[in-house]
Amino acid sequence: MWDDDREERVRRGTAPRETxxxxxxxxxxxxxxxxxxxxxxLLAGCGSAATNSGPGADASGGPAATGAAPPAASGAASAxxxxxxAQPTAEPSPARTPMTPRPTPTGxxxxxxxxxxxxxxxxxxxxxxxxxxxxxxxxxxxxQGDATVIRSGSWTGLIDGGPAGSEPAIEAALTTLGVTRxxxxxxxxxxxxxxxxxxxxxxxxxxxxAYMAGAPTAALAGALSGxxxxxxxxxxxxxxxxxxxxxxxxxxxxxxxxxxxxxVVLRLDAGGKSFLFxxxxxxxxxxxxxxxxxxxxxxxxxxxxxxGSRYSTSxxxxxxxxPKVAVICVGPNSYGHPTPATVGRLLAAGSRVYTTWKxxxxxxxxxxxxxxxxxxxxxxxxxxKATAAGGSAEGGGGAAAGAAAAxxxxxxxxxxxxxxxxxxxxxxxxxxxxxxxxxxxxxxxTLKDARGAYRPCSVCDPPI
Length: 464
Description:
The chain has helices at residues 2-11, 20-53, 73-82, 167-176, 192-195, 198-205, 218-226, 283-294, 315-321, 340-348, 356-359, 400-410, 447-453, and strands spanning 135-139, 148-152, 155-159, 184-187, 209-212, 230-233, 239-242, 245-251, 265-270, 273-277, 301-303, 325-328, 352-355, 362-366, 372-376, 420-423, 429-430, 443-446, 455-456. α2 runs antiparallel to α3. The protein folds into three domains: 17-56 and 73-87; 135-376, Metallo-beta-lactamase, Chain A, CATH 3.60.15; 411-456, no CATH class. It is built from 13 helices and 19 strands. The protein is α/β, with parallel strands linked by helices. The chain is elongated. It is 29% helix and 18% strand.
């Protein structure tokens, strides 16, 4: 009876009044649903803003051209919808995250090429201050011997290495030019006053190529092999590229067996200026070089052969080469170098004469346009008279001590007035008293007697 009456009241809309606890539960449910919907809207809006306005976006709202992938905004909104009660993450949006620098790779990075190094293609302004395309020629002051450094663009070469003990002076010249490795060495001939310093220099500066005519000494051959240097035999007519400069071998055409006469002779052309490097060339080969030079313009700078010996730099050769400037590489010696006769011939030919003994190291710089300048390690005054480089009397070798030595050993005389020279037990030459070939034996003989049986030594230039 009670149950039937209750059903009738429900059908007529007269259900019993809802209690307060029930109303409160329904209100809380509604508030919870509203908050959930608000969170969904908020999360979706934040994701869209980060995608379109972050630092990684371009003007169209897409990702910038940095290779970074766009943030997955739709995926974030979907996740928020599926879990409306989840709290927003505290991590910033990927588009707003500052780019982290790429870590440095492990290992040692190659160091940059030092200024002025002989790296291929490095023709820029080096430590010497020379402009691009310039060629620098340095006649190094090594005393009684020859050593010349040539720098042209990225190419650096050394012609001869002076006597033993001259390595510091040559290395100082290389360092001043910013050189870290030699491109090449040219060995004019194997006498000690031209190669004494080469053994150490080759080992330390590792030239890629060595140009010579004939075999090196055993010590030099070992140094070249140890440095990995390719030895190239050259003869007259060979052309060589020395950076921005061009070199041509003018002598020898073949080997005679006389080291001085067989010297490698080079003509270097740079910026329209010419340099002639003669080693200790003499005799027929010097005449052949003169004939070649006669067919071209005057030589701008002549490296005088054999330190100003009387047996080289003949008047005929000078008439054909017509050098404007002459450089004599010489130092204190007992041979009388440079001889007054040779200096006199140079002055008569109109050459401006300098010596490393008087002027110190001599540096010529030729620009790509052909402008040439010169600087000196000591005095800039040229030789004006046919006297020795050190300012002593004619024939004295330069300094007072040199003059005395020359008089004692090269021009000594017997009581009867005959000039004394020296021979060895097994040699075929006669020598001046200070010649290195006398270290084994030293036998005095008059010049008159020596002339008939021996020939003069080509190294020490005894009287003839």
